[in-house]
Structures
1.
Amino acid sequence: MTYIDDVLAGRRAPGAFPVPAGAPVSADQAVAAGWLVAVLDGRAITTAAELLAACGGALEFPDWYGHNFDALADCLGDLSWLPAPGYLLLWRHAEVLAGCEPESFATAYRVLAAASADRLAGGVAPLVSVLVGAAAP
């Protein structure tokens, strides 16, 4: 998958990357680099609440996680409870939430992109989010 490969090689800044459904997506390079890889099965994510719960579970968010987009941004900006040289959030079937709740999908996309940019600006381990099956809002 070129996005993560490009980030690891320094050819692209970390961010939130939508990729078409059916595109070959592999986390192998991220795993080989020691990154933490969290996978969301978007087939079960039809609401913002389900997305927030899935992110909290996949990334083992602490008890103080508030299950809202502000809390998601806070947790993605921290991740100190999961030390790793980098983080890959692989959201498969992101088109499901985009179709069911377009505004929630757009907000989630903005939060993921901003978290990547903030982590980069703060000089902490990068975060890359790959949203398979959905276009950028």
2.
Amino acid sequence: MKLNELTPAAGSRQSRKRVGRGPGSGNGTYAGRGCKGQNSRSGGGVRPGYEGGQMPIHRRLPKRGFKNLFRKTVAAINISDLDRFDSGSVVDTAALIQAGIVKGAFDSIKLLGNGDIQKPLTIKLHAVSKSAKEKIEAAGGSVEVQ
């Protein structure tokens, strides 16, 4: 077998159906759309979810729960994540995003106390837990809540 002898498996490649190209094509005249009606027209048809005037399913089913419009999303990070920063550096929102520790949309960042730290760091975040604050200050760093 040579490269020029390779062919696709039989029936795996099928040409696109070209509609509205005359009666000889098998899909001429009405081009597979039937005769008259909303769906035969250009741009015709109904929007997704429309059930012909019947009460749609998304309105028939009961709604459950509560969606808070004013919810705040908090990105949580741990002290163990701060190992990658150099000693004496300032850790703020921009530094955490650049380091790839926090991603996506969030309203604030909270530092939690899971893990240990030996480097003195200056932390400037929206919220810091009590245990995290104690560990950072024990390592010689400082915490500034914005």
3.
Amino acid sequence: MWKRKVHIGLLSALILAAGRRAVADSVDDFVRQQMKERHIPGAVLIELKDGKIVKEQAYGVANAELNVPMRTDNVFLVASITKVFVTTGVFLLIQDGKLHLDDKITQIVPELPASWSDITVLNCLSHTSGIPEIYNHLYDKEFCSVVI
């Protein structure tokens, strides 16, 4: 479960459009309109219903300079914007009794380095884990296969 690729797409358009009622003939029209208005070169939309993918669509380009089309398996470096989503998800799991702040992260993701065995969920949420910057490991295939 933890090794599955995580696709995060269209975050900027959806976040910026939050609170506004979308008036469009279809999801595709709305996405294209938002991309045009906000100068978003490429995005990926994945629509889920009951935990199953019902629509998976790529829009625009992944590389505007080379005109490389966006694909649904493109990886997005979204950096700190993920913090609020991850924290919300963690607290929903805590609320459901499926996770605790004092759980060790190596119990949750056994593939993590043994040197991280004392790090808790709370350490990760409060930035007191001591885990090095992810950007230092972007090209470390072994590390990225666990994190991404």
